[in-house]
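Please produce the structure of this protein holding flavin-adenine dinucleotide.
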Amino acid sequence: MTFPDMVADLAATLPELRGRLMANQSLADLTWFRVGGPAQILFMPEDEDDLAYFLAHLPGEIPLTVIGLGSNLIVRDGGVPGVVIRLGRGFNAVAAEPGARVRAGAAVPDVRVARAAQEAGISGLAFLRGIPGAIGGALRMNGGAYGRETKDALVEARGIDRRGRLRLLTLADMHYAYRHCGAPDDMIFTQALFQGVAGDPAAIAAEMDQITESREATQPVKSRTGGSTFKNPPGQKAWQLIDAAGCRGLQIGDAQVSILHCNFLINHGGARAVDIEGLGETVRTRVKESSGVDLEWEIKRIGIAPTPSPSAPSPSAPSPLVPCPPPIPS
Ligand SMILES: Cc1cc2nc3c(=O)[nH]c(=O)nc-3n(C[C@H](O)[C@H](O)[C@H](O)COP(=O)(O)OP(=O)(O)OC[C@H]3O[C@@H](n4cnc5c(N)ncnc54)[C@H](O)[C@@H]3O)c2cc1C
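Below is the modeled complex.
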């Protein structure tokens, strides 16, 4: 699947652009699941000014999507029309500041922020150790773990809106709830300022080690996955509902509900996006039938299904369901 190449036409309208514009760039390589079609145009801005210039001049009718490290994403097999923005080097600075604060660019992996805080003796950011995304994704998802969320540590976020205007958002402006950010959808975050408290570097390092150990024991962190597939419904655990619905180990093609943690979906290597999304929808249906609960996707799904060709089997139909393996003895 390829899109019409718009790069030359777009570049001609942006003489001062410094970042890279790439046509039909694979997104599978940029996500944890390793599935999905290309971005019609992938744009990697050089820095915040470059991003603002690009957005100020991008025609309003061209669709725009931003991705981080792709650890919470299914990119559909037909790819993403329009422009996909991915922040890189120019958004990669992280530094401790006076008053137990840490300032980080949106492309900084969460783990680097946790480490910078630990080295500076700033407690309260160790939870970021276990989240495999970057700061832009943490801001948008209100990423959290081990009893803390982004909202508990954020002072303010900085970003550029669809019209290229720089915006500073306070914590209140982010309208956070569990895995939800109510900041305007068009905001591309570029930086965050976090508040911690003074702490002992050795104790923080021990806390981070414990997080790493606990993750490796309970989650398929070395697999092609998107983390928790569904949000926990109020007062309930998604994984328990999925388990009770008999979906642990359920498989469509090479996509499987993780046996280790059944709110995780896994790509064993050959799955397509349609298999993973279809498996998620099958889980939702079975959970609804068994418990009456409507699970809400936590993973973001972007892009379009591939266009079917008259001579080939439909590329948007999922592979057949594989029978469930026998339950594992507890
Ligand atoms: C093994 C594993 C474990 C995980 N464990 C956890 C966990 O414990 N807790 C948790 O909260 N999550 C967890 N996740 C999910 C994921 O890591 C988080 O949601 C993370 O915050 C996503 O960041 P990302 O950079 O990968 O964003 P992406 O997955 O690339 O994008 C996620 C969303 O953020 C938006 N976004 C990304 N960057 C920006 C930006 N600069 N400006 C505006 N919007 C942006 C995207 O448009 C998209 O809507 C896990 C994932 C995996 C694979």
